[in-house]
What we know:
- The protein is mainly beta.
- It has 2 domains: 12-104, Immunoglobulin-like, CATH 2.60.40.10; 110-204, Immunoglobulins (Immunoglobulin-like, Sandwich), CATH 2.60.40.10.
- 4% of the residues lie in helices and 45% in strands.
- The protein has 2 helices and 18 strands.
- It has helices at residues 225-231, 236-239, and strands spanning 11-14, 19-22, 27-34, 43-48, 51-52, 59-63, 68-73, 82-90, 93-104, 110-116, 121-124, 129-138, 142-147, 150-152, 159-163, 168-173, 182-190, 193-204.
- The strands form 4 sheets. It has a 5-stranded mixed beta sheet, with no helix packed on it. Strands 11-18-17-13-14 form a 5-stranded mixed beta sheet, with no helix packed on it. A 4-stranded antiparallel beta sheet has the order 1-3-7-6, with no helix packed on it.
- 11% of the residues are buried.
- Its main location: cytoplasm.
Amino acid sequence: EPIQERFFRPHFLQAPGDLTVQEGKLCRMDCKASITHGLPTPDLSWQLNGRPIRPDSSHKMLVRENGVHSLIIEPVTARDAGIYTCIASNRAGENTFSLELIVAAKEVHKAPVFIEKLQNTGVTEGFPVRLECRISGEPSPQIFWKKENESLTYNTDRVSMHQDNYGYICLLIQGATKEDAGWYTVSAKNEAGIVSCTARLDVYTQWQQPPQTTKPKKVRPSASRYAALCDQGLDIKAAFQPEANPVHLTMPSGLVESDDL
C-alpha cells in the first residue's frame, strides 16, 4: 500500500545570537532550517522590526549548498539596528527566531595635530626643566621622544616622560647638565598619520649675582624722557657736547632705568 505523505513544520538547526557591529562594516547572519524527514523544504524570509527586508544594494540573501541561509548587510548603517526575525515556513507551518543587531558608532580617525608646540627653552645648570606640548588625535596617538638622533625609550630617575588623558606631553629633566643641551623632537603617531615638533634646550653655566649694597632707586615714569634722565643725575647737555668728558656718560651705580626708556 502506498505510504501516506506526512508534512512537518520546519525547525532551526542553526541560528545566531545578538550581534554588535560597527557602523560601516559588514554584518552576516547565518542560519539553517530543516524538518524532521527533510520534506517539504522550507522557505526563509527576514524581517527588521516586523517589516519585511527586501534585497537591495546593501542587503543580500544567499543560500549555500549545505542549506545555510545568510543575510548579509554591507555597509551597516544606524538604520540597520533593531530586532531581526527569520521566518522558516512550509505547508505544515512555520518557525522563527529573533536577534538584536546593535550598530556601534563608526570609529573616528583623526591624524595627530599640535595644539601647543614645543618651545625653545633655556635653564641654568643644575635646575629642573620641562619640555611641554599638547597634542590631539583619534585614536589617542603614541608618543616618541628623541634627543638629536637618539631615541629616549625609557624613564630614569633624572629624565622622565609623561602624558595625561588631555593630550599634555612632558619631558622632565631633573638637574639639567651641559650634556642635556641640544635639539629635542617629540612625535605623535596613530592610524591616521604622524606629526613631529622640534625645539632646542640650552643649559647655561651657573653664575653668582653680586650682592646689592644699596637699594635701587625707583624712577617714577615721566612723560618727558629728558626729565626722567635728569632725575637720574645725567647731564643731557654735557653728554651731547663734543668736548664732553666720558665720565659724564657713566650711569651712577645702583640706579634702575625707567620703563619709559
